Amino acid sequence: MSLDRDWPYPLWIAHRGAGKLAPENTLAAFRLGASHGFTAFECDVKLSADDVLFLLHDPTLQRTTSGRGPAGDHAWAELALLDAGSWHSAAYAGEPLASLDAIAAYVRRNHFAINLEIKPTPGREADTGAAVAEYVARTWDEDETPPLLSSFKPEALAAARAARPEVPRALLLDKLHPGWLDMAQALECVAVVSAHTLLDADVIAQAHKAGLRMLTYTVNDAAEAQRLIAADIDGLITDEVALFSTRG
Predict the structure, then answer these.
(1) How many structural domains compose the chain?
(2) Confidence of residue 4 (pLDDT cuts 50, 70, 90)
(3) What is the pLDDT of residue 2?
(4) Residue 177 annotated among the catalytic residues of the structure
(5) Do 215 and 93 contact (CB within 8 A), yes or no?
(6) Residue 6 lies in a domain
(7) What is the mean pLDDT of residues 83-96?
(8) 3-state secondary structure 178-208
(9) Angle 57-59-64 from CA coordinates, rounded to 5°
(10) Structural domain of residue 191, as residue ranges?
(11) Which letter, b or e, does each residue of 215-227 get, where b requires 16 or more Cβ atoms within 10 Å of its Cβ?
(12) In this structure, what CATH number is given to the domain that contains residue 84?
């Protein structure tokens, strides 16, 4: 990959829709992030027991929904009835879990960009990676900005590559383990997405020299954002959609 070619994703990316201002990974969160001027969003995607793709961060339901137990053990018909808003605040009581169908329709109609983090139920890494890549390939048109698929799970990214190699991928890192750059290249990624505390200008330059973009999570401090921008970061994922509002 040549870094001279256009990079289609905005610098600022809203984490899980609107960070912490709305219930994460819901359509309400995406709408709130958009109201602050964001045109790119990150969210977490997994498979239901009957292979429907939907948005949820945790392996279990209890933190952010009215359900309990492993999310991947439930069919979508059950998951769709859960309350995914009351845990956040009364204003969002009754907000449902979002299917990837619903999120895809929203971002495509508004010409937004999206980073889909493949967040598989343990043991379903390959199934989920392949399913997300296949879904993206048949849903987004060639003239649209394709979703960027990311994951901490190399098995998920490898399955996504095998299923649909044309869908762009990024390796997620919470530490710069030995061989991280080689792994990203072996998976034919276009980017690495790293915790911001691990990054400086030298690390970002290493990625760029290897033909990879570098994105970072979760940047919620203005001074830290400026440090990373000065170091030539390609994307900043943030919870602070109000602080970093891109509205004119």
Answers:
(1) 1
(2) very low
(3) 39
(4) no
(5) no
(6) no
(7) 98
(8) CCHHHHHHHCCCCEEEEEHHHCCHHHHHHHH
(9) 55
(10) 12-238
(11) bbbbbbeeebbeb
(12) 3.20.20.190
Residue 17's region, left for phi above 0, alpha for psi from -120 to 50, else beta, is left
Look at residue 244 and tell me if it is in a domain: no
What is the pLDDT of the chain when averaged over all its residues? 96
CA end-to-end distance (rounded Å), the chain: 33
* Cα–Cα distance for residue pair 99/139, rounded to 1 Å: 14
Residue pair 15/81 in contact by the 8 Å Cβ criterion:
no
Instruction: Select which of 15, 36, 74, 196 is catalytic.
Output: 15
Amino acid at 167: V
Tokens matching residue 54:
């939907």
- Tell me the C-alpha distance between 120 and 50, whole Å: 14
Q: Which two tokens stand for residue 186?
A: 């072996």
Task: State the Cα–Cα distance between residues 207 and 191, nearest whole angstrom.
Answer: 8
β-pair partners for 148: 115
Q: How far apart are CA 230 and CA 224, in angstroms?
A: 10
Residue 36 designated active-site? no
Q: Is the pLDDT of residue 3 over 60?
A: no
Is 173 a member of any domain? yes
**DSSP secondary-structure letter at 5?**
S
CB 151 within 8 A of CB 126: no
Inter-residue long-range contacts of 178-187, CB under 8 Å, 24+ positions, other chains counted: 181/206, 181/207, 181/210, 181/212, 183/154, 184/210, 184/212, 185/210, 185/212, 187/154, 187/157, 187/158, 187/161
Examine residue 209 and state whether it is found in any structural domain, yes or no. Answer: yes
